[in-house]
TrEMBL record:
Pfam families listed in its UniProt record: Pkinase (PF00069)
Protein's name according to its UniProt entry: non-specific serine/threonine protein kinase
Record's keyword annotation contains Phosphoprotein: no
PROSITE patterns, sorted: PROTEIN_KINASE_DOM
Domain of life: Bacteria
Lineage of the species this protein comes from: Bacteria, Bacillati, Actinomycetota, Rubrobacteria, Rubrobacterales
EC assignment: 2.7.11.1
Keywords: ATP-binding, Kinase, Nucleotide-binding, Serine/threonine-protein kinase, Transferase
Residue ranges crossing the lipid bilayer per the database entry: none
Keyword flag Transferase: yes
Top-rank EC class of the record's enzyme: transferase
Entries under SMART domains matching the protein: S_TKc (SM00220)
GO molecular function list: ATP binding; protein serine/threonine kinase activity
All residue ranges annotated as the Protein kinase domain in the record: 20-276
Amino acid sequence: MTGDAGLPPLKAGVELAPGYRVLEHLHRSRSYDVYGVWSAERCCRCIAKTPAPDMLEKRSARNRLLREGRLLGRLTHPHFVRLYEALKEPQPVLILETLTGETLAHLIHRRGRRLPLREIAYLGLHLCSAMHYLHRHGLLHLDLKPSNIISQPPLAKVIDLSIARPPGRGRSGVGTVPYMSPEQARGGHLTAAADVWGIGVVLYEAATGRRAFPGSTGSDTEHEARYEQLERRADPVREHRRVPPAFAAAVDRCLEPAPADRPAVGELFAQLDRLLKS
């Protein structure tokens, strides 16, 4: 798999960094490669994230990865992927725990499976727990989406803190276009409400099997991106799946265009918890 970058990924057997041998190439994003590697020190398989070959000389890609490593190194929470170590030489590499589950994107779309509502409610609790912890550490995730969530029963794990940052003025278009809150798409003031929106769009897609804003297209590197979330409100959840009114209301509130109209993370957690208990 070569992804968008021109140079091919490393082959199995190549030493990625001292003590880490490539087992397989797993994924390529716009800037980074993810490998399964064998750790000689730990005598086990780990995950390695490193700049794609074309990006190795780009300081911005290197700095973002090392910054992500510093952030992950501060976090100890069951719903965040665990960092083992961050290497700077001969190239930046993050060594992460191996997660044995599948991405939520795979469960929703590639397997074509409608997830049980009880599982979705638990997913929401896990995301609320993770975001509550992250916000207490003064950070926003800003890129919650099904491909950044690993389902590893009984836990959901959040990955990729590459654009996480403190609350404050954002930069227009930084994130994943279909999942950005309206204020994130505009480059407006960002608060915890942006991650509540992120939880909402994830739960919406998990429940209905479709994106809340399917007309949003483009990437954070394109100037021609279309932000459907700036043009209209999301369809109510119950237009696409018959779910309990209380669940639909909780998700629909997360997708209110105005940040002040969305529930706080703790409020959303309590709503989902009551639904599960009832």
